[in-house]
């Protein structure tokens, strides 16, 4: 089983990476080529769809970063963790919880994201 804390930190590092080429490398290194992502605000599939989705989110929240909130946990092929989105030096604008499904071999196959309360 993939270590839940390592997976969560790597996952958030992908979202926080400000270089599109580096983000693509992170996707290729840790995600299945047919991976899917869905949350209440957006969805993407495959490397292209997920990369475009992350880029759009980064454009909508410039200068913001995701940080891990609490301890990630795992059960079978699933990892669950919570996060906070905060601008540099500011108050959090969003909190959420993501559930990640890991395929055999440790690659991310699917992410279902939940927003914990309203987005500011």
TrEMBL record:
SUPFAM superfamilies recorded: NTF2-like
Source species, domain of life: Bacteria
Gene3D superfamilies noted in UniProt: 3.10.450.50
Occurrences of domain SnoaL-like (ranges): 8-111
Pfam families attached to this UniProt entry: SnoaL_2
Protein name, as recorded: Nuclear transport factor 2 family protein
Species name: Brevundimonas fontaquae
Lineage of the organism: Bacteria, Pseudomonadati, Pseudomonadota, Alphaproteobacteria, Caulobacterales
């Amino acid at each position: 089983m993939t270590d839940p804390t390592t997976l969560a930190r790597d996952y958030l590092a992908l979202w926080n990476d400000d270089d599109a080429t580096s983000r693509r490398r992170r996707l290729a290194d840790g995600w299945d080529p047919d991976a899917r992502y869905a949350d209440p605000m957006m969805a993407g599939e495959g490397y292209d769809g997920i990369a475009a989705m992350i880029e759009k989110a980064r454009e909508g929240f410039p200068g913001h970063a995701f940080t891990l909130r609490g301890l990630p946990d795992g059960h079978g092929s699933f990892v669950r963790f919570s996060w906070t989105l905060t601008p540099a030096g500011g108050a959090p604008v969003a909190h959420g919880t993501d559930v990640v499904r890991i395929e055999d071999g440790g690659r991310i196959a699917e992410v279902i994201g939940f927003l914990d309360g309203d987005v500011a």
